[in-house]
Amino acid sequence: MKTLVFLLEKEFRQLLRSKQLLGMLLLAPLIQLILLPLAADYSVKNISIAMVDNDHSTTSRRLIEKIVSSGYFKLREYSASFTQGLKAVEEDRADLALQIPVHFERDLVREDRKQVFVAINAIEGTKANLGGAYLSSIISDFNEDIRAQWQVVTPTTQVTVATSNWYNPLLNFHLYMVPAILVTLVTAMVAMQSAFNIVQEKESGTIEQINVTPIKKHIFIIGKMVPFMVLGIVLFTMGLLVGWILYGIVPLGSLWVLYGSLIVYLFSMLGLGLLVATYSGTQQQAMSLCFFFINIFNMMSGVFTSVDSMPDWARAIVATFPPSHFIKIMRPVVLKGSGFSDILPEILWMLALGVALNAWAVLNYRKTT
Amino acid sequence: MRQLLIFIRKEFLHVFRDRKTLLMLFGLPIAQIVLFGFALSNEIKNSHIAIVDYSKDAVTQRLITRIGGSPYFNIQRTLASGDQLNAAFKKGDIKLAVIFPVGFGDDLVHTGKATMQVIADASDPNQATTITNYLNQIVLDFNSELSQGAGQRMQILPSTQMMYNPELRGAPNFVPGVMALVLMLVCTMMTSVAIVREKELGTMEILLVSPFKPFYIILSKLAPNLLISVVNLFIILALSDIFLDLPVKGSLLLLVTGSVLFILTCLSIGLLLSINAQTQQAAMMGSMMGMMLPTMLLTGFLFPIENMPVALQVLSNLVPSRWYFIIIKQVMLKGLGFSAVWKEMLILTGMCALLFTISLKKFKIRLQ
């Protein structure tokens, strides 16, 4: 026990001594947390549209007006032909092209039906999805309008839908992103730094000095883990404060639940850092390995895209990533006020992963080479 | 000249000796392309929903069957009362709840109107909007079926065509993004670390006192990373063609030229980082924290740049991957020619020239 206290004292001194590193460790995430949610705005608005009006009738002009005034669409240009509209989409000037064909108004009145053509650039799937949906709902609204105007008898039986959005009624995207970005920042800092720290001792040769002392493996490892656990908690607290001050996000759930799961999460991520350290001989190797994991974690853990829409095999892989579970805890606890019993499965997952990673790391850590 | 070749050979030996790093350098792009290409998708299917049916009549039955039959929805449970909804949302079991009020069917038959209530878990706003839209579509279909007898008049029928990516796969958007990300990080990180390591180990001193020109030191450091990146590029292109069905539609030569320009720009950034960093750790943190998230976010492949605040939009102009991302999309996915990307190419050339000149000027030939 006494050994552990001394080791901890050493680690903390080393950590606090290098001001440049410490500054970077605390400042970089802070700056990112302030800036990134501003960038990560995926509320779909400003869909630019290339309009092809071949009809030039009152009805077609009113349709265009209705679309533009909806607020979702931005009229980029009037194209002379559909080919030109498509060209605008091709050259990324417009996200979609809408063609109102010749005799639109006449045929609508005479034949009771007329098609309009929409071409959407679907490379960005979410935007295409939402843009298409918005456009068709505007068109169907407009359809009602002109039926009313021409006093056409509409069918009488109709089911209407009243929608309410819970937990985020204004559909504010920051609410969704800030908790997840906080997770990615804590992840990157803690896992990487713990790995680098140990590998640095390997590179500079000081680990050999520790190896020849009677310090036990697990004491050494705990000594390495605790400072980074503390660092992670400090970072997380700073992050919550930034979220509160800048974005007005106050966790609805209990802070005990948040910090409790944070500690389990840090335990599992430090296990990963340790594991990486035992497999790397140089800082460069540790960095490459960390980069590999962190990059995949960031992209696959549901920060940016939904895990639920992945195929089953991919979801099975994602289940082994600790960050995916912590994100599944953070969002509901912060936004919906979920309690301990709601997130218990995720905590158990993280705990199991943490035990497995740490056990693997301890087994793989050799005092001799 | 011979000296330079010998030094380049030395650098290659350094790189190829470190099997673990090398494995990572090539393993990473492969794993990412395959994982992201197959796993990431923008389509939202099988959303779990709950139904609260207070009415329990023939009409609600028909609607429930329709909703359950749609590929977008998966009826997770039927709740007896709306009070249980909050708990279900908190547990994360359901994304959306549909509530039919008492007398729903009677209202529809007698008054011609009935309102069903839909509650979406909007903590994920886009998902909430999309699945609510899907549900609305189902109800619209149901309505027009109801009114078949009456005959719908004056119908405007939108015929929508999803261009370039009809199945809304994630791959066409993510592959260019991953290409930009991987090339960027491999180049900046590997270069900055390679130079700082010599500082840390003290071998830089030896290099500097030798008659070998500083310019050559830089060239020999850049050469292996350039080669690795180009090989990576071809691996990624081959993988996307074979596995993800995303061949290079435009000219391969144009794409490779654009990529090399981008790689050179990133190498220059790495060089610049290495000049300012004292330790490998600082260099890594600089390239990791300073490059990775900004690249992911300001490139435009995750979040549309036009939605960002003006300051960030201006800032995104400084991120080289933003321009590279456009080049890949235009040339690889849409098959456009030089005329569509000349501006981006020019910008990358300018950035590359500027960064490289600055790093050359600032490259210190003295240690203190």
What is the secondary structure topology, with strand pairs?
The complex is a heterodimer of chains A (369) and B (368).
Chain A: H1 2-17, H2 19-39, E1 47-53, H3 58-69, E2 73-78, H4 82-90, E3 96-100, H5 104-111, E4 113-121, H6 125-149, E5 158-166, H7 173-204, H8 206-211, H9 217-247, H10 255-279, H11 283-300, H12 312-318, H13 322-336, H14 340-364
Parallel strand pairs in A: 1-2, 1-3
Antiparallel strand pairs in A: 3-4
Helix pairs in contact in A: 1-9, 2-7, 2-9, 3-6, 7-9, 7-10, 7-11, 7-13, 9-10, 10-13, 10-14, 13-14
Chain B: H1 2-17, H2 19-39, E1 47-53, H3 58-69, E2 73-79, H4 85-91, E3 96-100, H5 104-111, E4 113-121, H6 125-146, E5 155-163, H7 171-201, H8 203-209, H9 214-242, H10 252-276, H11 280-298, H12 310-316, H13 320-333, H14 338-362
Parallel strand pairs in B: 1-2, 1-3
Antiparallel strand pairs in B: 3-4
